[in-house]
Amino acid sequence: MHGADPRLVLGLHRSRHHRDILTAALDLGVTALDTAAPYLGFRSHAVLGRTAADLLPEFTLSTKVGFFLGAGGVEHSLDPSQLRSAIEKAARELGREPDTVLLHNPERSLTSLSPADGRALLGSACTVLASAASEGLCRTWGVSSWDTRPLGTVGVDALPSPDVLMIRAGFLVGIDLLDAATVLRNVWQAGETWGMSPFGGGNGKVWEDFDPRPFLRPPHDGLSRVQAAFRTAFHLPSAAAVAVGTDNPGHLAQLVTALGAEVDTTAVSQYLRALHGYRQS
Question: Which of 6, 4, 1, 18 is nearest to 243 (CA)?
């Protein structure tokens, strides 16, 4: 077994939830697992609890709540009672309390509200998750946001500070989103930052046209462009962990190998300055 490395989080967004990828992750030392209530057609928790109950204690497990099945299909809600019920249901279906519960894309419920109404709604939702953590329904809580810009408009500085802020990371994230996420986590005084979707949803062709390996310090012989893109994502923006989804043990092994590479932070800073300059021109 390799040494455990919590920096790489195995995400289950598009996963088939088969045991083989979970056992392969453990063999590679990947002991952080991320899922969400709506994954696998709202069956993720139940399937994990039924088919991998013996493996789940080996992982640090995070999940997300905020999407629900309604009469009109999938609906987003920050209703406190719905969130509380979802957290309790997650623990029942998983057969254990998750280590971290994240508020799933709260911006979906904020975009049509005034800043004052949005702040009140987000504040009540955060209070539910903070209370769940204090009551032992999870160890920590946080927010997972695909687009943090709406959160920045409601004034989060007076709201409970999340232990974790999970945001998009990597070369395919625009400078506006990178800047907004940096401002948000500083104003909100969030604990850890986790990145997600470092490959932009699986668009592999972009790495045929763009080589991110110059952003790594030599030697990095043998590393692929995809490995370099993943490793550099930890600095776009600065993140303690990055979640990536795969059902391929070989791909996961390549990403674990990439963790040993060192990022040239000067090159990253120059890249960010160039993006700012392009935006202003």
Answer: 6
pTM over 0.90, yes/no? yes
Instruction: Name the residue among 184, 82, 201, 92 with its Cα closest to residue 143.
Output: 184
> Does residue 195 lie within any of the structural domains?
yes
User: pLDDT per residue over 20-58, tens digit each?
Assistant: 999 999 999 999 999 999 999 999 999 999 999 999 999
Q: How far apart are CA 91 and CA 25, in angstroms?
A: 22
Number of structural domains (the chain) is 1
Query: 197-201 contacts: CB < 8 A, separation 24 or more?
Result: 197/168, 197/169, 197/170, 197/243, 198/169, 198/170, 198/229, 198/230, 198/233, 198/242, 198/244, 199/170, 199/172, 199/226, 199/229, 199/230, 199/244, 200/170, 200/172
Q: What is the CATH number of the domain that holds 233?
A: 3.20.20.100
Phi and psi for 154 in degrees, rounded to 5?
A: -95, -10
How many CB atoms lie under 10 A from the CB of residue 53?
Answer: 12
Residue count of the chain:
281
User: pLDDT tens-digit profile of 94-114?
Assistant: 999 999 999 999 999 999 899
Three-state DSSP at 32 gives strand
Residue 197 — left, alpha, or beta (φ > 0 → left; ψ -120 to 50 → alpha)?
A: left
Its domain, for residue 154, covers 8-280
Looking at residue 271, what is its pLDDT? 96
Strands 73-76, 67-70: parallel, antiparallel or unpaired by DSSP?
antiparallel
What is the rounded distance in angstroms from the CA atom of residue 259 to the CA atom of residue 32?
A: 15
Q: Amino acid identity, residue 28?
A: L
**Closest C-alpha among 209, 210, 181 to residue 194:** 181
Nearest CA to 242 out of 162, 189, 179, 171 is that of 171
